[in-house]
Amino acid sequence: MLRVPPVIRFYSNKLAYLAAWFPYICIYELVNRFPLIEPRELPFSALDQAIPFVPAMLPVYVAYLPFYWWTVSRSEDDLQANRIFYATHFQLVVSLLVFVAFPVRMPRELFYGPELYGWADAFWRAFDAPNNCLPSLHVSNCLTMIEFNWRRRYRMAHSAVALAIIASTLLVKQHYVVDIAAAAGVYMLSRVFLARLDIVRETSRRRVGARRRSERNADLPDIPALPQSDSTQRPLRTGLAFRISAARPYIRRHSP
């Protein structure tokens, strides 16, 4: 088992999760905007060519961001929030290795133009360059969201949203089919990672110290309790009264 500390906790203010995932977004954007190697374009497979371009699915593709936040914000406790955190960040680390060593881009300019889809196209061009295609973090993250939402209410509705986002990655021509297959592999790796993960809940020094003292005291022998007085026994005497009572035999023997 891999023992790791909790990084986040269950927040009553759900907007706090945006701050917790802010470094994730920054790292992704940094690699997306400033690749170390010139990204290459892959040839379109027969399946890529058969999938139509549906720009109306772009809002669904962008819905990945609020869907991600919605799933994390519905965490039931610290443990579940941290498991989602570690799973998605593990997927990011694995994907970054491919983004840096083998960057792939989609020739999105073949499909999009300033006259197509207006402000939405301009927004998406500004937020996400057509790089970091292989593997698709949209897909690996959405598969994780399906897994975590499956034990919650409205699991079928959440699964439908996640599957629609996965389909949109191909319909808006942001990803190749091979990107989806690679993302599924990343998701499976993250499941193996989570299975071996042991999130240590007690992180404060005070709690750890108390736990260690409790473990040490468990090894000590039990000390028998002092006898207690009841209605059939004389009450135990303590203090000055006890000392006077104990001295009476001595006083009687030595008195004239």
Question: What's the helix and strand layout?
Answer:
Elements: E1 2-4, H1 16-20, H2 22-33, E2 40-41, H3 46-50, H4 58-62, H5 64-73, H6 78-101, E3 104-105, H7 118-127, H8 137-149, H9 155-171, H10 177-195, E4 197-199, H11 205-218, H12 239-254
Helix pairs in contact: 2-6, 5-8, 6-8, 6-10, 8-9, 8-10
Strand order of the largest sheet: 1-4
**Fraction of residues in helix:** 55-70%
Strand content: under 5%
Strands, total number: 4
What overall form do the CA principal axes indicate?
globular
Estimate the mean pLDDT confidence. 82
Distance between the termini: 82 Å
Please describe the biggest sheet, giving its number of strands, its sense, and whether it closes into a barrel.
2 strands, parallel
Low-confidence stretches: 203-208
Radius of gyration: 32 Å
